[in-house]
Every structure is written in structure tokens, then in C-alpha cells.
């Protein structure tokens, strides 16, 4: 167990480092929620190491402080971060305050204990753990599972709105949170001591490493979340020049008709650096690369579907002619940009 504690202690620094990197690179709600989530995971690990070690006897006045409040925030942060990814949520609204209800209820029901003097609080918690404290562990486990289910359902019904990279990232985030939720619920009921929860925090560290992995693996997503080009000297005129080259490549050369077309290929064609092209999409065009490509493909597909020359083509053939690799991706993109299924659009001319 001592080895696990050393590992967790090291992960605290990793968590704060990753959280700081995300926070100082961008200033939007998406990055803020991700940074805050990772930072709070690190701080929660600190609270666990403190509460399950000898220091709690030296500084009893800090026992139980912020432990539940922070844990109650994990679910809301995951959910709001998903909203930022899926619907481009840019600011906190009044209804979002409802996420704080569990914390308010917790303070109403347990605040008297938290406001006790340190030694008195420690003695009280030891003597009344099953009758007072354990109840809130059950509430926390239930709230965690509730957000896990809610986040899963929300992502399932909105997955078509995400690009491939974002969907992959969102899936990892939700799966990691669901697994952590199941684990903490299991430990709440079956753990022999608080030290057993070390494995829960080990599982949470996968969230930190996983986020870092996806940010490094997907350069375009890294740009969108952390703005890899932070501090870039690319001027607005440079971006306008690149945008002009992009429009020419798409309108005149129809480069988007090539299957598996990616931003690296486009950058090579334009003789521009990939992160400069990414910055142009993000800041000037205000659209991610995948959506930009699919939007042009759908316009071509709409022409084919109403062209008598292609009346005998099946929908899948139209998809391939438009640059899509499969019918499923085509259907999702077509519905996203037109609000109709391809078959319904084809019939609308008749």
C-alpha cells in the first residue's frame, strides 16, 4: 500500500501540471472545465493521502474538509465539459447552478459536524461514522452513478454531432468516469477501510493520463483544446492568405473527394505548416476541419441525389462518390447538415 501512496503522491504533481497546461493555454469554458476537473482530481488525492495517513492526527482541524464538496463536483464538470464539446457551450447559465444542489444539501445535513473544533470533530466522526458519515458516502456514490448514467445517455444521443477525434475523446472521458463511478460505489459498500479507496484514486489517474494521451495523439484536437499555436506569430493577414488557398483547394480542386483526406495532406498541398492551417480553421474559419470537409462533401452529394445521371446509384454509391468511406458516416453528416436523410432528400425533387 505504501508504494500505491507514493504513486498517488507523484500523480498529484502530474495532475496539477496537466491542469495548469490546459488552463494557461486557452480561455474558454471547455478548457476551464477540463482544467478544473483534473486539478480537483489532484486535490482530492491530496485530501485522501492526508485523511488516510498520520497527518490527520497532527492536524485534525482539516479532517473531512472539502472532501465531499470536491467529489460532488466531478460529475457536473464532466457533464458540462461534454456540453462544451457537443453544443459548444460557452458560458455558465443560471440552470447550471442546479448542479450544486448536492453540496448545499450536504452542508445542511452535515455542516454542524464540519463546523466542530478539530479534535471534537475527529472524535465525533469516529463515534458516529455509521450513523452520520456513512450516509453521505452512499449519497456521493449515488450522485456519481447518476451523472455517469446521465453523461452516457447524453453522449449516446448526441454522438453524431461530434467529429471522429472529439467522439473518441468524449467516449474515453465518459468510460473513464463510468468505471470510476462503479468502482467508488463498490468500495463504498464493500471496502474494509478508507485505505482501500487508494485503488479508486489509481483509477482516477488513468483519466489524467488518458486526457494527456488524446491531446498528444490528435494534433488538431490538441489545437482546439490547448491551442498548440499559443504564442504563434501568425498574423490575421497570414490566416486570410491560408483561408484563400483552402477555399481554392476545396472549390476548384475538390480535394475533399479523396477518402481519408486529413489536415496533414491539406497542409502539404498548400505548402503550409499543419498547426498554421489548424489555427486558420479554428480562429478565422471558425469550423473544425472534419465539419468543413463533410460540409463540402454533402453539397456534392446533394447535387448527385438530384441529378438524373445518378438516379440509379444507391445511397452508398453516392456516399463513396462524395468522398465518404461508408454509408453510416455519410448518413450522420447528411442529417447534420441538411436535417434530412439522403433518401428523403432524393424524393423531395420528385
Automatic annotation (TrEMBL):
The keyword Transmembrane helix applies. The chain crosses the membrane at residues 6-24, 31-53, 65-87, 94-115, 135-157, 169-191, 197-216. This is Helix-turn-helix domain-containing protein. PANTHER family: ARAC-FAMILY TRANSCRIPTIONAL REGULATOR. It comes from the Bacteria. Keywords: DNA-binding, Membrane, Transcription, Transcription regulation, Transmembrane, Transmembrane helix. The keyword Cell cycle does not apply. Residues 240-348 form the HTH araC/xylS-type domain. InterPro entries: Homeodomain-like_sf, HTH_AraC, HTH_AraC-typ_CS.
